[in-house]
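Practice record 12: protein with pyridoxal-5'-phosphate.
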Amino acid sequence: MSKFWSSVVSGLKPYTPGEQPKVPGLIKLNTNEHCLQPSRHAMAVLNAMTPEALRRYPDPECTALRSAIARCEGLSVAQVFVGNGSDEVLAHIFQGLLSSSESLVTLDITYSFYPVWAALYGLQLKTESLHDDFSIDVNRLSAQRDSILIANPNAPTGRALALKDIKRLVDSNPDRLVVVDEAYYGFGSESASTLLLEAENLIVTRSLSKSHALAGLRVGYALGSAALIEGLTRVKDSFNSYPLDASAQLVAEAAIQDEQWLNESSQTVIKNRLELTEALLDLGFEVCPSSANFVFVKHPAHEGRVLFEHLRESNILVRRWDKAPIADYLRITVGTKAECAALLQCLAEKCAL
Ligand SMILES: Cc1ncc(COP(=O)(O)O)c(C=O)c1O
C-alpha cells in the first residue's frame, strides 16, 4: 500500500495465475501448456533471428502475422487483431468494446480473469449459473439484454457449446456484442469464427499458448468485423504500439502456417485425453466431458484438497480452486503419456477401488 496508489489500484483484486515453480522433476499439469514441443518450423525461425531484426522496431501492425491468420480463417486482414497473449486482447475488448454498455453477462463458473477486467474497466459483471453438470442454459443466457462473454470450451470445466447454440446467442440480439473466448480451441470444439462472414456483433479470441504450444511466446488474436477490429487497434495504439516483438511475430506466423503440426498435435492431445479420461473413470472419478487440453474431475470419496496435496507431495502439480461449488474438483492438464501415467499411479494410491 502506498499513498501514491489511485483509488482504482487500491480497490483491485488482481488475477492469480497458476503457479510456475521451477522445481526439478516437477510434473506440471496446472496451467494447460501443450504436452508436445512447438512446430519445428517455428523453432527454426526463432533460431534464425538476426541481430538486425532485433535492432529495428518490429512492424506495429503485425501485417505478415495477421495475413497468415486471415488466410487460415478465410477472413480479410482487417478482420484480425493480434496482441501479447489473448489476455491482452481480452483486456482491450473490455476497455474498447464491452465498456460501451454498463454491464455484461458471463457464466458463474468460468475464467477468473473476467471479473478482474470488469472491475478494472468499471463494468458491472452479471453471472448466469451453469447446470449441475456444468452445461450452459442457452435459453436463459440469450434472454439476457447485456453483452455476453463466454469461454468456449469453458474453463475450468472443459465443456464446449455447439456452434448452433453460439449462433442462437449471436442471432438473438444483433444489438449486443457476443465475445467468444476460444483460448482452448483446437482440441475438438467447433469455432464460432465461421459466423463472422455474416455476424457484425461477434468477436472471437484465440491463443497460441495452448493449441500451438507457444505459451512462452505470448501471442493471441481476435477475429471480428473490420469495425470491431479497428476499435481494438485504437485501444492498442493508445497504450502500446508494439505489443508483439519481432521474434513473436515471425515465430507465430510460422506456427500458424504449419497446419500439419497443428492437426497431428491436436490428435495426440485428444488421444491422450481419451486414455486419461478412461483411466480416471476406472479409478472412480467423475470426469466432465472435455473439448480442451485438460480434464475437470472429482472423486466422490476423496476431497479435492486431499488429492491435490497428495499429488503435490509427489511433485505433481494440478490446479484447484478453493471455492464452492468446485472445491472438490481438480483441473488436470492432458500431459504426455509418461506424465499421465505418473499422475494415475499417484492417484491410484489414494483412490483404487
Ligand atoms: C479461458 C482462457 N482465456 C484466455 C486465457 C489467456 O491465454 P493467453 O494469454 O496465454 O493467450 C486463458 C489462459 O489460461 C484461459 O484459460
